[in-house]
Amino acid sequence: MAKIMIVDDSRTSRKILRGILESSGHEIVAEATNGQEGYDKYAEIKPDMVTMDVTMPVMDGIEALKKIKGDFPDSKVVMVTAAGQKTKMVEAVQNGADEFVSKPFDAEQLKKIIEKVLS
Ligand SMILES: [Mg+2]
Predict the structure, then answer these.
(1) Ligand 1: distance of its center to the CA of 61 in Å?
(2) What is the pTM of this model?
(3) DSSP output for the chain
(4) pLDDT value of position 86
(5) What is the pLDDT of residue 79?
(6) Ligand 1 centroid from CA 1, angstroms
(7) Gap from CA of 118 to ligand 1 centroid (Å)
(8) What CATH number does residue 102 fall under?
(9) Domain count, the chain
């Protein structure tokens, strides 16, 4: 069981992610609705893993990834992408993203990716 933080500006996405992750036995220790809030909560709580949406207001997921990886090199960050975000995915890889999951979520695929990142 891991302590996971969900960063996503979509209430629906957060709810779906929480459902899948909790049903896999993980604990959601925090939710954040933009990259800045995600970074601040990461620094405070230091969860085992983060799911990071790419497109968010205030600070997007790429900037938050850079900040978290810059300050916490051992962090594990799984990027949540939508269709047509190839450029953002390349940028995320260059900035240390551990894995990717795409919307709409596939529960089985998501579980596999999470286990891989945590192992
Ligand atoms: Mg979004």
Answers:
(1) 9
(2) 0.96
(3) --EEEEE-S-HHHHHHHHHHHHHTT-EEEEEESSHHHHHHHHHHH--SEEEEESS-SSS-HHHHHHHHHHH-TT--EEEEE-TT-HHHHHHHHHTT--EEEESSP-HHHHHHHHHHHH-
(4) 87
(5) 97
(6) 26
(7) 24
(8) 3.40.50.2300
(9) 1
Rounded to the nearest angstrom, the distance between the alpha carbon of 96 and the centre of ligand 1 is: 20
Residues 36-87: pLDDT tens digits? 999 999 999 999 999 999 999 999 999 999 999 999 999 999 999 988 888 9
Domain hosting residue 8, numbered range: 3-118
CA 55 to ligand 1 center in whole angstroms: 4
How high is the pLDDT of residue 84? 83
Q: Which residues crowd ion ligand 1, with CB under 5 Å? A: 9, 53, 55-56
How far does residue 84's CA lie from ligand 1's centre (Å)?
13
